[in-house]
Amino acid sequence: MVVEHLVGIGRRDADARMAHFLLELGSRLVLVGLGESTGYDCPLTQYHLADALGLSAVHVNRTLRQLRERGLVTFRQGRVSFDDREGLMDLAGFDPAYLDQTGPLLK
């Protein structure tokens, strides 16, 4: 997991970093029964996302808008909705296998 996070900071642009974060969080929530393949409740603010991803809040806002305009994901009113999960996974280079601790993950 550490390697995946280091790659995220060093090699992914803001779009891919955000996509990966949202997908990883979703996969983790599925593991504990709090998420679905279509999305999940997410009380994080854009400021929280900025701190977690090493971006400014303005950049987070712009990045989320771009992902929404591309039809990949919507983050609105505390809910993340995957509009094109496969496209988001391609953008992020996301492979949930590194998270698999106890059972099947979203693929």
Write the layout of secondary structure elements.
Layout: H1 2-11, H2 14-31, E1 39-41, H3 46-53, H4 57-69, E2 73-76, E3 79-82, H5 85-92
Antiparallel strand pairs: 1-3, 2-3
Helix pairs in contact: 2-4, 2-5, 3-4
Short structural description:
The protein is built from five helices and three strands, in the order ααβααββα. It is mainly alpha-helical and 107 residues long. Strands 1-3-2 form a three-stranded antiparallel sheet.
Task: Describe what this molecule looks like in 3D.
There is one protein chain. With 107 residues, the chain is mostly helical. The chain has one domain: Winged helix-like DNA-binding domain superfamily/Winged helix DNA-binding domain (Arc Repressor Mutant, subunit A, Orthogonal Bundle). It contains five helices and three strands. The protein has a three-stranded antiparallel sheet. A hairpin with a 2-residue loop joins strand 2 and strand 3 (79-82). Helix 2 (14-31) packs across helix 4. It is globular, with a radius of gyration of 13 Å. The two termini are 18 Å apart. 21% of the residues are buried. The mean pLDDT is 86.
